[in-house]
Design brief:
Elements: E1 2-5, H1 11-16, E2 25-27, H2 37-47, E3 52-55, H3 69-82, E4 87-90, E5 93-96, E6 99-105, H4 111-128, E7 133-135, H5 149-160, E8 163-167, H6 168-178, H7 182-188, E9 194-199, E10 203-206, E11 209-211, H8 220-231, E12 239-241, H9 250-271
Parallel strand pairs: 1-2, 1-12, 2-3, 3-4, 4-7, 7-8, 8-9, 9-12
Antiparallel strand pairs: 5-6, 10-11
Helix pairs in contact: 4-5, 8-9
Length: 272
């Protein structure tokens, strides 16, 4: 099951042709809550054909401000109206003093941060009446860490009792930038919590620095890490292809989705 992010950049061409054939689509609720007219019709035309997964951008789970309950009410309504199968968010913060920072900033790997973000995830799950999935984000500088990234992530997952959105490209980018073994990182994750996988492209801008851009095709080493990840799962997990800009011909996106599906099928066939 391989899906694609439903973006206004190519929504019309996507819906008017059969070039792109995803198993599902993903949207960020923030981009569609309250939208009417033409774009609302386009979204619901897509929902007539495809199941929906959602991926939030601005909940700011790691931030110091109180959770925005008015916004969460809108999210809950959106999930119900669209029949969304999953709500996911980032293990990061994006707001401070009620100001949106328009970026996904890393949470310090500390015991206090674990307690803070775990409680907030539980609060969101209780309000929505469902488990959510949190995404391991890419980061470029650790902030006053008291522990390793993997220990921090695992403790949050355990305390919050939530699901994991495993962005394989993010793991690869972080492993490259912070000099750790990506496969060993995958080995240490609680794979039974993996509910969803993201795949995307990145850009190497320096000899020792990769940026998580979502603007290029998936790199071969990320495909390799994806195959390794799939081999560690004992079930079929939905996989999303992310492409946020530099949108190529839809046939190229379809080819990437087919490659993701083919790798998954090959791994399962070998395993069984």
């Amino acid at each position: 099951m391989v899906g694609i992010g439903f973006r206004k950049d190519f929504a019309e061409a996507f819906l008017q042709s059969d070039v792109l054939r995803p198993a599902f689509i993903e949207v960020s609720p923030e981009n569609w809550i309250g939208v009417g007219g033409y774009w609302k019709k386009m979204l619901y035309k897509a929902l007539d054909k495809y199941p929906l997964f959602t991926h939030g951008l601005s909940l700011s789970l790691g931030g110091p401000d109180e959770l925005d309950m008015d916004f969460l009410k809108q999210v809950k309504s959106f999930l119900k109206q669209t029949g969304a199968r999953l709500y996911s968010e980032h293990l990061s913060y994006a707001k401070c003093d009620n100001a949106h920072l328009y970026d996904l900033l890393p949470i310090p790997f500390t015991h206090d941060a674990i307690r803070h973000v775990s409680q907030r995830i539980r609060q969101v799950q209780d309000f929505l009446g469902q488990q959510m999935a949190i995404e391991i984000v890419s980061y470029y500088t650790p902030v006053a860490p008291e522990m390793s990234e993997i220990d921090f992530v695992n403790e949050v997952l355990e305390r919050a009792d939530c699901q994991l959105l495993l962005d394989v490209n993010n793991v690869y980018v972080n492993s490259f930038n912070h000099h750790y073994d990506a496969a060993a990182y995958i080995d240490a994750l609680p794979m039974h919590r993996v509910r969803y996988i993201h795949m995307a492209g990145h850009e190497q801008v320096e000899e020792d620095l990769i940026l998580d851009t979502h603007g290029r095709p998936i790199a071969d080493p990320v495909y390799d890490l994806y195959a390794y990840t799939v081999s560690k799962l004992n079930r079929d997990v939905p996989v999303l292809l992310e492409r946020d800009f530099n949108i190529p011909d839809l046939s190229e996106l379809q080819a990437e989705m087919e490659q993701l599906a083919s790798i998954k099928s090959s791994v399962y066939a070998f395993a069984h």
